[in-house]
Inverse folding.
C-alpha cells in the first residue's frame, strides 16, 4: 500500500464484499486466511456485530483481479460464512470512513 | 433429539457417548496429559476399540485408511502440543484428497490458553488452512452440538477433515444431558440444474472425439457404476486420475488408465486430440494436466463437481455443473444417445497399439513391474492396495490391475511419504476380511516405521511389499534426468536390515532376494495370516516412464 500513491490506488478497480458470518472468535482468521495464503491483499476490513450479536457483518475492500471469482467461491465455502454479496467500489461504506485515515 | 432420563456427565463422557452413537467402533490415537479425561472415559466404553498408534501421524493415517476403505468418517485422537502438531500432516493429507476425518485433540484448560502453558500450541490456528472446518470447544454443553456437526461437515458435500480441539477443563466439566442429538450424517446435495444437464447431454451426443475424465469424486460419491454406464452408452474412451483408479476396471475396453505425468503415451495423446472433455469429480490437478495451456487444447469442457469452487478454477468449463456426481450422471444417462463411435474408438485403438504403456520386466518378479504383477497374480479384486509415495507408487498405479472402487488407497494430493503402512493398518481394521497389501519403498517406510509394532500388536492382515532401491528413487530419477546426473542426498549410505527390523518389531518377514523361487515365496507370504513384511531389492537405475517433464505439456513425454 505504501509503495502505491493514493492516486494510483484509486485507478485500480475495486470491489466491496459484504459477508454475513457467525460471530465467534476465529471467524476473521478463517476469512482473511483465504486471502493471505493466496497473497491477495485485503485493502480494507470492517467488522461489527449485527442485531443481537449472534452474527456479524464483515466488509472487505479488495482489488479486482482474475482470482476474485475463485476467492468469492472459497469464502462461500466457509462453514461460518452465511452469505456473500458483491458491491462495486462506489459502495459508500469505506468512502464514509476515509476521514479517519487522513 | 431423543429424550432419555437426564444424566449428569463430564464433557469427556459426552464425547465418548457421541462417538458411540455415531457408530464409531474403532479409532486410533495416542493419549497425553490434556486428553486424559477422554481416555479415562474411553476406557469404560464397551463398544469402541482404541488402537494405540506409536506416533500421532501414524494414528491419523490409520483413521484415513478406515475412512478411505469405507467412505465413512473415521476418528483419530491426540493430546495437545506435540500430539496435535504430529497429527497435522495426516490432516492436511486428508484435506487434499477429500477424506472424511474427525480429529479430536486435547487442549490445555481454558484459563491457561494463551499463557504458553506446558504442551500448549494454537491447534485451532494451525489447523485452519488444512481442515474443512475446525472447532475450539468452549463448554461441555457445546459438545452436544459440535461433535455431530463435525461428522456432518466431514461427510457432507465434498468430504474433508474436521478438527475438534477440547480444553481439558471442558472434558472435566459436568453437565446434565436430557436429550441426545442425532448422529451427524451427510447433508443432502441440491439436485443439478436440469437445463445444464440437458446441455451437457447434447454436447456429449454431438461430440466427435469425446473423452471421459474421472477423478476421486467418482469414488467418493459411489458413482463408479454410473460412470462406466455413461462411458459404455456414449462410447467414451475413459481416463482416470490417480485418485480415481479402480472406478473403471483398468482392463475395460474403454479404459485408457491413468492420465498425466506418468500415464501411458496413448492416454495423453488421445487427450491431446479430443474435442470434448467430460470431467467428473476431477479437479485438473497439475500432475494430471501438465502445462494447462497444452491440456486438451482443442476440447470443449463439461465439468461436473460437487464443489462449485472447482468449476472454472483451472480450466474454464463450457458447461459447469455443480452437484453430486452420481446424481448428475444418473440425470444425464437417459438423454445420452447410444453410440458405437467407430471412427474415434478405432483412432484411440490405434494410439493404444502404437503407444502402449511399456512395462519392461513384467514377467520377472525381481523387477518393479514384474513384482507388482506377481503380487496381483496371487490376489483377487477383494484385496485392498495401499501405497506410500514415490517410484513404487507410480509403478503400482501403472501396473496393478485395479478393478474396484476403494480398492486403491494412496496419498494423491499431498503426496505424503509414510502414508502407506498406517493407512493399510486402518483399512485392515475397518475391513478385517480383506487382504491389505501396502507397496512401499525404503525411503517411505522409514517415515512411519514405528507402526510396524502397531500392526503386530493388532495382528492385522497387512502385507508390506518393500521395494528397496537404497535411495529416494524419484529424487534420484529426477536428478538423473533433469539435474545433470548430480546425485545428491538421494542415495542412502546406511541401510537397515529390514527383515530384522520387522522381526524386531514382532512381525514375520521374508526376503525375496534370498528365495530361489520368488513367486512361490510370495504366494506363501501373501496367504499367511497376519502381518508380514516382504523385502525385495530393486535396481537403483530403474525409472518410472514415460514421464512428462515438470512444466511441459502432456504430449511431450520422455521415455517409455
Amino acid at each position: 500500500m505504501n509503495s502505491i500513491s493514493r492516486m494510483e490506488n484509486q485507478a485500480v478497480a475495486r470491489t466491496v464484499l459484504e459477508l454475513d458470518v457467525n460471530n465467534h472468535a476465529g471467524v476473521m482468521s478463517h476469512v482473511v486466511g483465504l486471502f493471505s495464503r493466496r497473497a491477495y491483499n485485503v485493502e480494507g476490513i470492517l467488522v461489527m456485530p449485527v442485531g443481537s450479536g449472534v452474527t456479524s457483518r464483515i466488509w472487505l475492500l479488495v482489488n479486482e483481479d482474475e482470482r476474485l471469482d475463485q476467492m468469492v467461491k472459497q469464502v462461500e465455502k466457509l462453514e461460518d460464512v452465511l452469505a456473500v454479496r458483491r458491491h462495486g467500489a462506489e459502495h459508500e461504506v469505506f468512502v464514509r470512513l476515509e476521514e479517519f485515515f487522513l | 433429539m431423543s429424550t432419555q432420563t437426564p444424566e449428569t456427565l463430564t464433557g469427556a463422557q459426552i464425547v465418548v457417548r457421541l462417538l458411540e452413537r455415531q457408530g464409531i467402533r474403532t479409532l486410533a490415537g495416542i493419549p497425553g496429559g490434556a486428553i486424559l479425561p477422554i481416555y479415562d472415559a474411553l476406557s469404560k466404553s464397551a463398544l469402541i476399540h482404541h488402537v494405540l498408534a506409536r506416533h500421532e501421524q501414524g494414528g491419523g493415517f490409520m483413521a484415513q485408511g478406515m475412512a478411505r476403505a469405507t467412505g465413512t468418517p473415521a476418528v483419530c485422537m491426540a493430546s495437545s502440543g506435540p500430539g496435535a502438531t504430529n497429527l497435522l500432516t495426516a490432516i492436511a493429507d486428508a484435506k487434499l484428497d477429500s477424506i472424511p476425518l474427525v480429529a479430536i485433540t486435547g487442549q490445555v484448560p481454558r484459563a491457561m490458553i494463551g499463557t504458553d502453558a506446558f504442551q500448549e500450541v494454537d491447534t485451532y490456528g494451525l489447523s485452519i488452512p488444512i481442515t474443512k472446518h475446525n472447532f475450539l470447544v468452549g463448554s461441555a454443553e457445546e459438545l452436544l452440538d459440535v461433535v455431530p456437526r463435525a461428522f456432518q461437515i466431514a461427510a457432507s458435500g465434498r468430504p474433508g477433515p474436521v478438527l475438534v480441539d477440547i480444553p481439558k477443563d471442558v472434558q472435566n466439566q459436568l453437565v446434565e444431558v436430557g436429550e441426545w442429538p442425532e448422529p451427524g450424517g451427510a447433508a443432502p446435495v441440491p439436485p443439478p440444474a436440469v437445463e445444464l444437464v440437458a446441455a451437457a447431454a447434447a454436447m456429449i451426443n454431438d461430440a466427435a472425439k469425446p473423452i471421459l475424465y474421472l477423478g476421486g469424486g467418482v469414488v467418493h460419491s459411489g458413482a463408479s457404476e454410473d460412470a462406466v454406464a455413461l462411458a459404455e452408452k456414449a462410447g467414451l474412451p475413459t481416463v482416470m486420475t490417480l485418485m480415481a483408479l479402480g472406478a473403471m476396471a483398468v482392463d475395460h475396453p474403454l479404459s485408457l488408465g491413468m492420465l498425466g505425468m506418468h500415464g501411458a503415451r496413448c492416454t495423453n495423446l488421445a487427450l491431446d486430440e479430443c474435442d470434448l472433455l467430460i470431467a467428473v469429480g476431477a479437479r485438473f490437478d497439475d500432475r494430471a494436466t501438465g502445462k494447462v495451456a497444452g491440456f486438451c487444447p482443442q476440447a470443449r469442457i463439461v465439468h461436473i463437481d460437487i464443489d462449485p469452487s472447482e468449476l472454472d478454477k483451472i480450466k474454464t468449463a463450457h458447461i459447469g455443473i455443480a452437484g453430486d456426481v452420481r446424481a448428475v450422471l444418473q440425470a444425464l444417462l437417459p438423454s445420452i444417445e447410444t453410440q458405437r463411435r467407430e471412427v474415434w474408438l478405432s483412432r484411440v485403438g490405434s494410439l493404444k497399439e502404437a503407444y502402449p504403456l511399456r512395462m519392461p520386466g513384467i514377467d520377472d518378479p525381481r523387477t518393479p513391474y514384474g513384482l507388482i504383477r506377481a503380487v496381483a497374480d496371487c490376489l483377487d479384486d477383494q484385496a485392498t492396495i495401499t501405497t506410500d509415495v514415490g517410484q513404487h507408487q507410480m509403478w503400482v498405479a501403472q501396473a496393478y490391475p485395479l478393478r474396484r472402487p476403494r480398492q486403491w488407497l494412496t496419498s494423491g494430493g499431498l503426496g505424503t511419504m509414510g502414508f502407506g503402512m498406517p493407512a493399510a493398518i486402518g483399512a485392515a481394521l475397518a475391513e478385517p476380511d480383506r487382504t491389505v497389501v501396502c507397496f512401499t519403498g525404503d525411503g517411505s517406510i522409514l517415515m512411519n516405521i514405528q507402526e510396524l509394532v502397531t500392526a503386530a500388536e493388532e495382528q492385522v492382515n497387512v502385507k508390506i511389499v518393500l521395494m528397496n532401491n537404497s535411495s529416494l528413487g524419484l529424487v534420484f530419477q529426477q536428478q538423473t534426468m533433469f539435474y545433470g546426473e548430480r546425485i545428491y542426498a538421494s542415495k542412502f549410505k546406511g541401510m537397515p536390515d529390514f527383515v530384522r527390523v520387522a522381526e524386531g518389531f514382532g512381525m514375520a518377514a521374508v526376503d525375496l532376494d534370498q528365495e530361489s523361487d520368488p513367486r512361490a515365496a510370495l504366494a506363501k507370504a501373501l496367504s499367511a495370516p497376519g502381518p508380514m513384511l516382504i523385502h525385495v531389492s530393486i535396481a537403483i537405475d530403474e525409472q518410472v516412464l514415460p514421464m512428462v517433464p515438470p512444466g511441459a505439456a502432456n504430449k511431450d513425454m520422455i521415455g517409455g
User: Anything to note?
Assistant: Chain B has three domains: 2-180, 194-354, 368-537.
